Amino acid sequence: MPTSDEMFAVVTEHLGGNHVRIRCEDGETRLGRIPGRMKFRTWINEDDIVLAEPWDWQDEKANIEWRYKGQDADQLRSEGHIDSLTA
């Protein structure tokens, strides 16, 4: 579950390298950066639900903190946590 400075987001576009375009639950579209610890271990595709942490100094960018697998994302939807996101 997200902390106070994190939020759910859906990946809308893979931009190559370690960057993705994400739509966050607050309605903003941000440039998401996949950190090195996730880059080769976790594949992030379009329509994946992720946990994003917007940058303090540039609100239009965010770090990807976690990717939810299909079953976990379905459970979040059924519990009503990600109603505003459609994937």
UniProtKB/TrEMBL annotation:
Gene from which the chain derives: eif1a
Matches recorded under Pfam families: eIF-1a
Family assignment from sequence similarity: Belongs to the eIF-1A family.
CDD domains: S1_IF1A
Protein's name in the database: Translation initiation factor 1A
SMART domains for the chain: eIF1a (SM00652)
GO molecular function: RNA binding; translation initiation factor activity
NCBIfam families noted in UniProt: PRK04012.1-2, PRK04012.1-3, PRK04012.1-5
Keywords: Initiation factor, Protein biosynthesis
Record-annotated S1-like domain positions: 1-69
HAMAP family for this protein: aIF_1A
InterPro entries xref list: NA-bd_OB-fold, RNA-binding_domain_S1_IF1, TIF_eIF-1A, TIF_eIF-1A_CS
Functional summary from the UniProt entry: Seems to be required for maximal rate of protein biosynthesis. Enhances ribosome dissociation into subunits and stabilizes the binding of the initiator Met-tRNA(I) to 40 S ribosomal subunits.
Superkingdom field: Archaea
